[in-house]
Amino acid sequence: MTFHILISDPLSEEGIYPLRQANGVNIVIETTLTPEQLEERIDGFDALLVRSQTQVTRELIEKASNLKIIGRAGVGVDNIDLEAATEHGIIVVNAPDGNTNSAAEHTMAMMMSMARKIPQAFHALRNQQWDRKSYVGVELKNKTLGVVGFGRIGQEVAARAKGQRMNIIAYDPFLTAEKAEKLGVDFGSVEDVLKVADFVTVHTPLLKDTKHLINKEAFEIMKDGVQIINCARGGIIDENALFDAVKSGKVAGAALDVFEQEPMVDFRLLDLPEIIATPHLGASTFEAQESVAVDVSMDVVSYFTTGTVRNSVNLPSVPKEIMKKIEPYFDLSERLGAFLTDLTGATAEEVTIRYAGELANMDVRPLTRNMLKGMLKRHLGKQVNNVNALYLANQKGIVVTEQKTTESKGFTTLITVEVKTANSVRKVAGTLLNGQGARIVKVDDYLVDVVPEGHLLYVRHNDRPGVIGRVGTLLGVEDVNIATMQVGRSIIGGDAIMMLSIDKPADTSSLVKLAKLDEIQGVTAINL
């Protein structure tokens, strides 16, 4: 099978070398397409690789009927409609590590240039002005650098700033006291950081919560004479508020590599002598551009050869060693979801997945998505996959909950799925038995031992003598052969179930006849 890959933005030849080396890959490079031309061209391609030039819109995605993966050779995915990609089951990958060093170095270069007013002094020299008094700067030594966003790039900037003997205080929603101590930095809230910092650098993604994070109110709580750096994303800093803060003297300097609109359209910030700027050069090194392209190319090859990726934006990222441990449960989780959909015959309102035993200490989000895929495919067909299963469940108003416990009731691991519908609550539990494969071990409150595959019949009945015989006899008359049978009951003479594995699907007529037998409460066909 040949996979067709379209590259619509310029990528280095070294960056796409992994694609060149892969078998069964057809690469098409067209970097001058208009949006309209790209929409006409995209259908039939399995993968799309971009940088920041191509806008991957919902309209484009809806035209890409065969698209399976989108790769962005860069850190963010601002130019990709992530919701639309997820909705259509398309994996989006990027290169979160590829330009870390480049961005950190550029941040330091901008901060030092701003502190020593190097661009302004150079501009004066270019205009034949020898003016030393106007360009007196400040040292970084013993100053406090506030880092808002302490991920990979933020930490790299902090490491370099410590080399300049700066004090570091950082904010990040995932930064703990233990981690901060280990990294040798102070930490606090955004307000804590802004109040004490002499220099503030931002390294957060651009989200709803971070748009205009540095705004008029933020500037008001900063020190007088603070200096600001943004080499992350345009829009984190409110440019109008920054303009006013510089004009008022609150901000002594700003170094900007990114802007709210790019290419830049409002140049009034650059009319202020306190501001220096570059045209989004944070990742513009030969090394970084090659590295991000290589990372994305390798993920695309991995997806087409193994079905896995390292840097998915819309799939949970799970360490390789954990994925190896949970991978054997993928098939079981999907079959449990499909089993419950057939069993309930109704729309789920709430789904609870409980992971017990060894799985309780692992990242099981991929298993949850896989279970939902099995559940939703019964109604939505092949459009459901691991990428969009959770999204589609949310769109359908299904509340999904994960729970974990180390108590597994005699099993090494146990996955229990409970579904609440408008009229009932049903559940099924499964596990993997050493050397014997997947098993369903409990249906509702009945203990069973059933292989979750093929054609099954779930029969509810009263625990009376002769019931099992009558079921077997009728199926024999209907030419339906029973492969295995499991019986579960609560108390002697009470409610009970039969789980039958049969060689071929029972037709509707046979199911109706079974349901009419004495002591039979109901019959459900389940096809796995």
Automatic annotation (TrEMBL):
Catalytic EC class:
oxidoreductase
> What is catalyzed by this enzyme?
(R)-2-hydroxyglutarate + NAD(+) = 2-oxoglutarate + NADH + H(+); (2R)-3-phosphoglycerate + NAD(+) = 3-phosphooxypyruvate + NADH + H(+)
> Protein name, please?
D-3-phosphoglycerate dehydrogenase
Q: Belongs to which family?
A: Belongs to the D-isomer specific 2-hydroxyacid dehydrogenase family.
Name of one Pfam family that matches: 2-Hacid_dh_C
Species: Planococcus faecalis
Give yes or no: UniProt keyword Zinc.
no
Domain ACT residues, every copy:
456-528
Q: What SUPFAM superfamilies does the annotation carry?
A: ACT-like, Formate/glycerate dehydrogenase catalytic domain-like, NAD(P)-binding Rossmann-fold domains, Serine metabolism enzymes domain
UniProt pathway annotation: Amino-acid biosynthesis; L-serine biosynthesis; L-serine from 3-phospho-D-glycerate: step 1/3
* Taxonomic classification: Bacteria, Bacillati, Bacillota, Bacilli, Bacillales
Q: Which UniProt keywords apply?
A: Amino-acid biosynthesis, NAD, Oxidoreductase, Serine biosynthesis
Q: What is its EC number?
A: 1.1.1.95
Q: Does the keyword Oxidoreductase apply?
A: yes
Which InterPro entries does this one have? Answer: ACT-like_dom_sf, ACT_dom, ASB_dom_sf, D-isomer_2_OHA_DH_cat_dom, D-isomer_DH_CS, D-isomer_DH_CS1, D-isomer_DH_NAD-bd, NAD(P)-bd_dom_sf
The signal peptide stretch is none
Q: In UniProt terms, what function does this protein have?
A: Catalyzes the reversible oxidation of 3-phospho-D-glycerate to 3-phosphonooxypyruvate, the first step of the phosphorylated L-serine biosynthesis pathway. Also catalyzes the reversible oxidation of 2-hydroxyglutarate to 2-oxoglutarate.
